[in-house]
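To whoever picks this up:

The parser on our side crashed when reading a file containing two proteins. I've narrowed it down to the boundary between the first structure block and the second sequence. Both blocks are reproduced below exactly, byte for byte. First block:
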Amino acid sequence: MIRNVTVKESLENQMAVEAAKRDIKAYKSLDYFKPNFTKENMPSKDAMMNELKGLKCDAVLTVTLIDKSSETRYVPGSVTYAPYPRFTYYGNFLGYYNHWYPMVYDPGYVTTDKYYYLESNLYNSKDEQLVWSAQSETVNPGSARLRIKCAGIL
């Protein structure tokens, strides 16, 4: 239930891999429903349920992006100092260079953190009742190739 098809495909593929590791047969929605499956372009409930019944699924797992936000923050700089014997650095260039070179300054910077909030729901396919639900937060995902490391998601 994510509009971004690239993210949706990555998420479904990774979840199917994790399910297979647990001897669970997973059917990915992109294999059975068009990628433009949205609220405005949704098949009828009967068409969806007939597709699921044809697959003989025990359950349906949905994952939805329920919120996203960003936060900009300042990360302060730091100075690291490596002590050197007293005043020996003034005698020549190499002594001076070797004294000051180990002192490293890391300037501060501004960064923006991105937060994504997901909700996962597991439904019994026979009576369509909710069996399990969880919400999770992902901070600064590196790319659309999301790794599923949520304990208990499958």
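<<boundary where parser fails>>
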Amino acid sequence: MFGSATYGANAYAKVGIESDIASASPHRLIILLYEGAIRSISSASSMMKSGDFAGKGRAISKAISIINEGLRASLDRKAGKDIADNLDALYEYMSRRLFEAHLNNDAQILQEIQGLMQDLKGAWDEIGSKTADVLPIERKTPAPAYDPLEPRLSRLVRA
């Protein structure tokens, strides 16, 4: 009659992720991409150990997509120059190694790439903490949430 508790939890998590993405700064978006790739690689590793090879393939494909369509696509080659080129080469290496891990069921490659991702994410976390100390944060009060059930005064009735 009702959906499973897992389905509800997954739907709730998806809404949380989507709202985080919608309100994220460009810096935060990169961190979210790293987190997603790390989660996918970890999931692939677990699935590889349990023998779920189809799930492993989906998780690795997701990690490769995050790297190629998210991280590589976000590189600004004009502004970043050498750094962007080096990151592009590193992302290319990671994508290739993840594909090798998939073909050869090699958990060590997954660990290697997950470690690289964690190092890069750590660097972005550090950049974020340093810029937060330097840059003033503009705080705006959010608009009040709209509650359709909240009683309101009508324009036709004077209080």
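After patching the parser it read the second block fine. The chain has six helices and no strands. The two ends are 46 Å apart (CA to CA).
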